[in-house]
Fold:
Amino acid sequence: MAHRHGSFAFAAAVATLALLTAAAAQAPGGARTRADCEREYTPRRGQEGKDVVWAPTEDSMLVRMLEMANVRSDDKLYDLGSGDGKIPIAAAKLFGATAVGIEYERELVEHARCLAAAERVDDRVTFVQGDLFEADFSDATVVTLYLLPEINVKLRPRLLAMKPGTRVVAYSFAMGDWEPDETLDSFGDGSAFYWLVPANARGRWTFWPTSAGEVFDLDLDQRYQMLHGTAANGASVSGRLRGDRLELAFAENGARALVAGTVEPERIVATVTRGATTAEYIGTRR
Ligand SMILES: C[S@@+](CC[C@H](N)C(=O)[O-])C[C@H]1O[C@@H](n2cnc3c(N)ncnc32)[C@H](O)[C@@H]1O
Structure:
Protein backbone atom coordinates (compact mmCIF):
# COMPACT_ATOMS: atom_id res chain seq x y z
CA MET A 1 0.00 0.00 0.00
CA ALA A 2 1.08 3.57 -0.63
CA HIS A 3 2.64 5.82 1.95
CA ARG A 4 4.22 9.23 2.01
CA HIS A 5 7.87 9.59 2.86
CA GLY A 6 11.24 10.13 1.27
CA SER A 7 10.84 13.90 1.07
CA PHE A 8 13.36 16.53 2.06
CA ALA A 9 11.01 17.29 4.96
CA PHE A 10 11.37 13.67 6.05
CA ALA A 11 15.18 13.86 6.02
CA ALA A 12 15.06 17.16 7.92
CA ALA A 13 12.67 15.70 10.47
CA VAL A 14 14.92 12.68 11.02
CA ALA A 15 17.90 14.98 11.49
CA THR A 16 15.92 17.03 14.01
CA LEU A 17 14.87 13.84 15.78
CA ALA A 18 18.52 12.82 16.03
CA LEU A 19 19.30 16.20 17.61
CA LEU A 20 16.29 15.80 19.85
CA THR A 21 17.61 12.51 21.17
CA ALA A 22 21.20 13.69 21.52
CA ALA A 23 22.24 13.69 25.14
CA ALA A 24 23.84 17.11 24.77
CA ALA A 25 20.51 18.93 24.22
CA GLN A 26 20.55 22.27 26.01
CA ALA A 27 17.72 23.70 28.05
CA PRO A 28 17.67 27.42 28.86
CA GLY A 29 18.05 29.26 32.15
CA GLY A 30 19.33 26.43 34.32
CA ALA A 31 16.41 24.14 33.42
CA ARG A 32 17.21 20.47 33.31
CA THR A 33 18.61 19.09 30.05
CA ARG A 34 17.72 15.80 28.40
CA ALA A 35 20.96 14.42 29.86
CA ASP A 36 19.87 15.53 33.36
CA CYS A 37 16.52 13.74 32.89
CA GLU A 38 18.32 10.60 31.76
CA ARG A 39 20.75 10.73 34.69
CA GLU A 40 17.86 10.95 37.11
CA TYR A 41 15.93 8.07 35.59
CA THR A 42 16.58 5.68 32.72
CA PRO A 43 13.76 3.34 31.72
CA ARG A 44 14.75 -0.21 30.94
CA ARG A 45 13.42 -1.90 27.79
CA GLY A 46 10.97 -4.61 28.91
CA GLN A 47 10.31 -3.04 32.32
CA GLU A 48 6.85 -3.56 33.86
CA GLY A 49 3.87 -1.59 32.60
CA LYS A 50 0.26 -2.11 33.67
CA ASP A 51 -0.97 -4.09 30.64
CA VAL A 52 2.10 -3.86 28.39
CA VAL A 53 5.81 -3.62 29.19
CA TRP A 54 7.74 -0.51 28.16
CA ALA A 55 9.64 -0.44 24.88
CA PRO A 56 10.03 2.69 22.76
CA THR A 57 8.81 3.09 19.18
CA GLU A 58 11.90 2.92 16.95
CA ASP A 59 13.23 6.36 15.94
CA SER A 60 13.30 5.28 12.30
CA MET A 61 9.54 4.68 12.37
CA LEU A 62 8.44 7.53 14.59
CA VAL A 63 8.64 10.41 12.09
CA ARG A 64 7.27 8.25 9.28
CA MET A 65 4.29 7.27 11.43
CA LEU A 66 3.52 10.90 12.26
CA GLU A 67 3.88 11.76 8.56
CA MET A 68 1.58 8.89 7.62
CA ALA A 69 -1.04 10.35 10.00
CA ASN A 70 -0.44 13.75 8.38
CA VAL A 71 0.09 15.36 11.83
CA ARG A 72 -0.18 19.16 11.67
CA SER A 73 -0.05 22.09 14.07
CA ASP A 74 -3.83 22.12 14.54
CA ASP A 75 -3.89 18.48 15.69
CA LYS A 76 -4.41 17.15 19.17
CA LEU A 77 -2.55 13.85 19.42
CA TYR A 78 -2.98 11.32 22.23
CA ASP A 79 -0.46 8.55 22.77
CA LEU A 80 -2.12 5.79 24.81
CA GLY A 81 0.59 4.25 26.99
CA SER A 82 3.09 7.03 26.33
CA GLY A 83 6.19 5.61 28.08
CA ASP A 84 9.03 8.15 27.98
CA GLY A 85 6.83 10.49 25.92
CA LYS A 86 8.80 10.33 22.69
CA ILE A 87 5.70 10.35 20.44
CA PRO A 88 3.93 13.37 22.03
CA ILE A 89 7.27 15.23 22.28
CA ALA A 90 8.10 14.57 18.59
CA ALA A 91 4.53 15.50 17.51
CA ALA A 92 4.90 18.87 19.25
CA LYS A 93 8.56 19.53 18.43
CA LEU A 94 8.60 18.44 14.77
CA PHE A 95 4.99 18.98 13.68
CA GLY A 96 3.79 21.75 16.04
CA ALA A 97 0.90 19.66 17.37
CA THR A 98 -0.63 19.77 20.83
CA ALA A 99 -0.13 16.36 22.40
CA VAL A 100 -1.16 14.33 25.43
CA GLY A 101 0.45 11.15 26.75
CA ILE A 102 -1.54 8.82 28.97
CA GLU A 103 0.77 6.61 31.01
CA TYR A 104 0.09 4.42 34.03
CA GLU A 105 3.61 4.20 35.45
CA ARG A 106 4.30 7.28 37.57
CA GLU A 107 8.09 7.23 37.06
CA LEU A 108 7.65 7.19 33.28
CA VAL A 109 5.20 10.10 33.52
CA GLU A 110 7.69 12.15 35.53
CA HIS A 111 10.52 11.26 33.16
CA ALA A 112 8.41 12.22 30.13
CA ARG A 113 7.53 15.57 31.78
CA CYS A 114 11.24 16.20 32.40
CA LEU A 115 12.07 15.44 28.74
CA ALA A 116 9.21 17.63 27.45
CA ALA A 117 10.56 20.54 29.53
CA ALA A 118 14.14 19.87 28.33
CA GLU A 119 12.86 19.93 24.74
CA ARG A 120 10.90 23.13 25.50
CA VAL A 121 7.56 21.72 24.41
CA ASP A 122 5.97 21.49 27.86
CA ASP A 123 3.57 24.30 26.88
CA ARG A 124 2.05 21.99 24.24
CA VAL A 125 2.63 18.52 25.69
CA THR A 126 0.84 17.15 28.76
CA PHE A 127 1.38 13.81 30.46
CA VAL A 128 -1.50 12.34 32.43
CA GLN A 129 -0.88 9.54 34.90
CA GLY A 130 -3.69 7.03 34.58
CA ASP A 131 -5.14 3.95 32.95
CA LEU A 132 -5.63 4.35 29.22
CA PHE A 133 -8.88 2.38 29.47
CA GLU A 134 -10.31 5.01 31.80
CA ALA A 135 -8.84 8.11 30.16
CA ASP A 136 -10.93 10.52 28.12
CA PHE A 137 -9.30 11.03 24.72
CA SER A 138 -12.50 11.93 22.87
CA ASP A 139 -11.09 15.28 21.65
CA ALA A 140 -8.16 13.60 19.85
CA THR A 141 -7.69 14.17 16.14
CA VAL A 142 -4.82 11.63 16.12
CA VAL A 143 -4.39 8.60 18.41
CA THR A 144 -1.15 6.61 18.55
CA LEU A 145 -0.70 3.15 20.05
CA TYR A 146 2.20 0.85 20.74
CA LEU A 147 0.48 -1.74 22.86
CA LEU A 148 -0.44 -5.37 22.10
CA PRO A 149 -2.81 -6.94 19.55
CA GLU A 150 -5.47 -7.82 22.14
CA ILE A 151 -5.27 -4.36 23.77
CA ASN A 152 -5.72 -2.73 20.35
CA VAL A 153 -8.80 -4.90 19.76
CA LYS A 154 -10.15 -3.99 23.20
CA LEU A 155 -9.74 -0.29 22.34
CA ARG A 156 -11.33 -0.71 18.91
CA PRO A 157 -14.98 0.08 19.87
CA ARG A 158 -13.89 3.35 21.49
CA LEU A 159 -11.78 4.28 18.47
CA LEU A 160 -14.62 3.47 16.05
CA ALA A 161 -16.96 5.69 18.10
CA MET A 162 -14.67 8.71 17.63
CA LYS A 163 -15.36 11.55 15.23
CA PRO A 164 -15.18 10.34 11.60
CA GLY A 165 -11.81 11.19 10.15
CA THR A 166 -9.91 10.74 13.43
CA ARG A 167 -6.53 9.21 12.50
CA VAL A 168 -5.20 6.19 14.38
CA VAL A 169 -1.63 4.88 14.05
CA ALA A 170 -0.41 1.72 15.73
CA TYR A 171 3.18 0.57 15.84
CA SER A 172 3.94 -3.15 15.51
CA PHE A 173 0.43 -4.53 15.98
CA ALA A 174 -2.75 -4.26 13.90
CA MET A 175 -6.32 -4.25 15.18
CA GLY A 176 -7.92 -7.64 14.56
CA ASP A 177 -10.09 -7.73 11.45
CA TRP A 178 -10.28 -3.93 11.04
CA GLU A 179 -8.10 -3.68 7.91
CA PRO A 180 -5.69 -0.72 7.98
CA ASP A 181 -6.13 2.03 5.38
CA GLU A 182 -2.34 2.14 5.03
CA THR A 183 0.59 0.02 6.20
CA LEU A 184 4.16 1.13 6.61
CA ASP A 185 6.64 -1.72 6.43
CA SER A 186 10.18 -1.37 7.55
CA PHE A 187 12.46 -4.33 7.40
CA GLY A 188 14.03 -4.68 10.80
CA ASP A 189 12.13 -1.93 12.61
CA GLY A 190 8.64 -3.41 12.50
CA SER A 191 5.47 -2.22 10.81
CA ALA A 192 3.01 0.56 11.46
CA PHE A 193 -0.69 0.60 10.65
CA TYR A 194 -2.95 3.54 9.90
CA TRP A 195 -6.74 3.85 10.04
CA LEU A 196 -9.20 6.66 9.52
CA VAL A 197 -12.27 6.36 11.74
CA PRO A 198 -15.10 5.81 9.24
CA ALA A 199 -18.41 7.70 9.24
CA ASN A 200 -21.62 5.70 9.53
CA ALA A 201 -23.08 5.18 6.05
CA ARG A 202 -25.11 2.11 6.93
CA GLY A 203 -28.80 2.17 5.95
CA ARG A 204 -31.35 2.55 3.19
CA TRP A 205 -30.67 5.70 1.23
CA THR A 206 -32.57 7.62 -1.43
CA PHE A 207 -30.39 9.86 -3.61
CA TRP A 208 -32.13 13.00 -4.89
CA PRO A 209 -30.67 15.02 -7.79
CA THR A 210 -30.12 18.68 -6.92
CA SER A 211 -30.92 19.59 -10.55
CA ALA A 212 -31.03 17.13 -13.47
CA GLY A 213 -30.97 13.33 -12.99
CA GLU A 214 -33.03 10.40 -11.77
CA VAL A 215 -33.78 9.49 -8.15
CA PHE A 216 -32.18 6.19 -7.09
CA ASP A 217 -32.09 4.03 -3.96
CA LEU A 218 -29.16 2.15 -2.36
CA ASP A 219 -29.22 -0.17 0.64
CA LEU A 220 -25.82 -0.14 2.32
CA ASP A 221 -24.26 -2.47 4.82
CA GLN A 222 -20.99 -1.46 6.47
CA ARG A 223 -18.16 -3.37 8.08
CA TYR A 224 -15.58 -0.92 9.44
CA GLN A 225 -14.70 1.24 6.40
CA MET A 226 -15.95 -1.25 3.78
CA LEU A 227 -19.39 -0.85 2.19
CA HIS A 228 -21.48 -3.48 0.42
CA GLY A 229 -25.10 -3.36 -0.62
CA THR A 230 -27.74 -3.46 -3.28
CA ALA A 231 -29.14 -0.89 -5.68
CA ALA A 232 -32.88 -0.73 -6.39
CA ASN A 233 -32.17 -2.37 -9.79
CA GLY A 234 -30.75 -5.40 -7.93
CA ALA A 235 -27.10 -4.63 -8.81
CA SER A 236 -24.57 -5.14 -6.06
CA VAL A 237 -22.89 -2.04 -4.67
CA SER A 238 -19.38 -1.96 -3.25
CA GLY A 239 -17.18 0.79 -1.95
CA ARG A 240 -15.40 2.21 1.04
CA LEU A 241 -15.11 5.13 3.38
CA ARG A 242 -12.02 7.13 4.26
CA GLY A 243 -13.23 9.01 7.29
CA ASP A 244 -16.33 10.81 6.06
CA ARG A 245 -15.38 10.46 2.36
CA LEU A 246 -17.38 7.80 0.54
CA GLU A 247 -16.80 6.08 -2.79
CA LEU A 248 -19.23 3.55 -4.24
CA ALA A 249 -19.78 1.82 -7.57
CA PHE A 250 -22.64 -0.19 -9.02
CA ALA A 251 -23.86 -1.35 -12.42
CA GLU A 252 -26.71 0.55 -14.05
CA ASN A 253 -28.09 0.03 -17.57
CA GLY A 254 -24.99 -1.92 -18.54
CA ALA A 255 -22.63 0.87 -17.40
CA ARG A 256 -20.93 1.81 -14.13
CA ALA A 257 -22.32 4.47 -11.83
CA LEU A 258 -19.78 5.98 -9.44
CA VAL A 259 -20.84 7.81 -6.30
CA ALA A 260 -18.25 10.01 -4.54
CA GLY A 261 -19.26 12.16 -1.63
CA THR A 262 -19.20 13.17 1.99
CA VAL A 263 -21.21 11.47 4.71
CA GLU A 264 -22.76 13.97 7.10
CA PRO A 265 -24.72 12.89 10.18
CA GLU A 266 -28.07 12.83 8.35
CA ARG A 267 -27.23 13.01 4.65
CA ILE A 268 -24.70 12.19 1.94
CA VAL A 269 -23.63 14.98 -0.40
CA ALA A 270 -22.43 13.26 -3.55
CA THR A 271 -21.37 13.58 -7.14
CA VAL A 272 -22.61 10.73 -9.33
CA THR A 273 -20.64 9.95 -12.48
CA ARG A 274 -22.21 7.95 -15.30
CA GLY A 275 -19.85 7.79 -18.28
CA ALA A 276 -18.97 11.38 -19.17
CA THR A 277 -21.90 12.84 -17.21
CA THR A 278 -21.73 14.05 -13.63
CA ALA A 279 -24.63 15.17 -11.45
CA GLU A 280 -24.93 16.40 -7.87
CA TYR A 281 -27.08 14.44 -5.43
CA ILE A 282 -28.21 14.55 -1.81
CA GLY A 283 -28.77 11.18 -0.15
CA THR A 284 -31.25 10.91 2.71
CA ARG A 285 -32.06 7.86 4.84
CA ARG A 286 -35.44 6.24 4.14
C1 LIG B 1 5.35 -0.55 24.41
S1 LIG B 1 5.31 0.88 25.45
C2 LIG B 1 5.08 2.19 24.28
C3 LIG B 1 5.58 3.52 24.76
C4 LIG B 1 5.36 4.69 23.79
N1 LIG B 1 3.99 4.78 23.37
C5 LIG B 1 6.24 4.54 22.58
O1 LIG B 1 5.67 4.17 21.51
O2 LIG B 1 7.44 4.78 22.62
C6 LIG B 1 3.71 0.72 26.24
C7 LIG B 1 3.49 1.69 27.37
O3 LIG B 1 2.14 1.57 27.83
C8 LIG B 1 2.11 1.70 29.24
N2 LIG B 1 0.88 1.06 29.72
C9 LIG B 1 0.60 -0.27 29.76
N3 LIG B 1 -0.65 -0.49 30.19
C10 LIG B 1 -1.20 0.75 30.42
C11 LIG B 1 -2.47 1.19 30.86
N4 LIG B 1 -3.46 0.32 31.15
N5 LIG B 1 -2.69 2.51 30.96
C12 LIG B 1 -1.71 3.40 30.67
N6 LIG B 1 -0.48 3.04 30.26
C13 LIG B 1 -0.22 1.72 30.13
C14 LIG B 1 3.39 1.01 29.69
O4 LIG B 1 3.78 1.42 30.99
C15 LIG B 1 4.36 1.44 28.60
O5 LIG B 1 5.02 2.63 28.94
Observations:
- Confidence is low (pLDDT under 50) at residues 1-6.
- The first helix runs from residue 8 to 21.
- The pocket of S-adenosylmethionine is lined by residues 49-52, 54-57, 79, 81-83, 86-87, 102-105, 108, 131-133, 146-147, 171 (CB under 6 Å).
- The CA atoms of residues 174 and 193 lie 6 Å apart.
